[in-house]
Request: fold
Amino acid sequence: MSEKSVNVILRLRPPLRKDERDDLFEVDKTSILDKTSAIRYQFNAVYDKDCSTDEIHDECVQPIVDAALKGFHGTIFAYGQTGSGKTHTMNGNRGNPGIIRQMIQLVFQRISQDMTARQYLLRMSYLEIYCEKITDLLWEEAGADRGRSKGGLEVRDDPHTGIPFIQDLREEVVTCVGDVMRWLELGESRRRTGSTAMNERSSRSHAIFRLIIESKDGDGAVTMSHLNMIDLAGSEKVHQTKAEGQTMKEGIEINLSLSSLARVIKQVTEQRPGTHVSYRDSKLTRILQNAIGGNSSTLILCAIAPGDREESLSTIRFATTAKSVKNKPSKNEILTEAAMMKRMQHEIAELKEKCAKLQAEKGTAEELEERRRLLQAINEKFLSGTAASQTREIKKKNRAAAELRRYTCAPSFAAPSLSSPGGGGDSTDGGDLSGGLFGRHQLHVSTLADGDSDDESQLTHHRRVAFADPPPPPLSPPPPHEVQSWADVCCQTETPPPPPPPSEESSSE
Reply:
């Protein structure tokens, strides 16, 4: 597993009326110069006040999205002081879409281009961390406010993988761009905000939007990944924000959480064998554990304000430290025995074809014989020991996976319906969670097709065609309130056929 450095980029927001100066820094494509100290800092990319969010998305975000569609986890988060433009960059608005909205459009565009080769299943969740309490922003049951009245949702560790997950977090199946946008806007409307002297609409919580992508190829192999888009609340100082009462307490909690993040990043960069990394110091660092030194491709976007040199230098120092973080991204794939055998058969066929081509090439008899012998040895290796040993390993992994829920899912909670926001959620609208995987989601796709725009309807049509393939052999229905995934289905063993009904002769006797 190869190591990959975290990508760190800077964005200098345009000057505002409150900024006394806007000439403290000089920016080029990959560096920023502090004119006061004459120190130049190097990063993967630096964007000046005239750049657009589209440029950042196309140059930095798109590679992470493409990798996620191939089964690699991806995380993008925005860091900086309050009022530096983080939320504008991540969320934007309808007229000027931010990174999250452009990412959603790109995911469905890529899926529509690849629909003939793979099947896709997408789910999303949206949460906030407010004063160290995790709240589900998609929970909409009447009279409930998920996570706010109970002290917040809990972060648990998967006993086998050790990767944290949020217990009881709601996940929604999404099938078109409009579907995701409706849930996204619902979550944004519930996020806590406030007004300070530094920012009229200041985010008072960290918001984490997660898109879970599962896909299956013709051989039956399933890849799964999740894209985490995180808008961090900005660091702030009381003498600048003029905050009082609850707003001041929120600022203290935000600063403590960001300090824990900076401390963890520093510990990861200086980590030696046997040293401890304090991921458990805050909810944010526990959730980001896989993105900081783990199995993920990570992009850190640091936003700075041109008129505040002290806070901007603090952000630049954070970004400089984060550049040294090394992650180990790897493809997340589940291979059943049948999928592995199909894949090996394809490889063997390619080797045979290559062997035939080599035999047809000109060369001495000894050279041709040597090539044939080598390829034949590879063939025999696949057909004998390798296939058997890999099959045994697959059986062991699949048995373990079948006993536990995948860590990208909520293990103990399922939403009462799969309908879109505002829907009834009854059994005729796709709310029935019983039945097979393909049937449930195909029904959900059909209910969304009529109300979508032309582009979204086209994507929905492609999804309906994909899900309309012949269903797999019948599986036993899932337990109540448990959402299955392809990973779960692939790991299940075939159930024995039911006993034949008694004949008339035996019944008469």
Summary: The radius of gyration is 26 Å. Confidence is low (pLDDT under 50) at residues 402-496, 505-509.
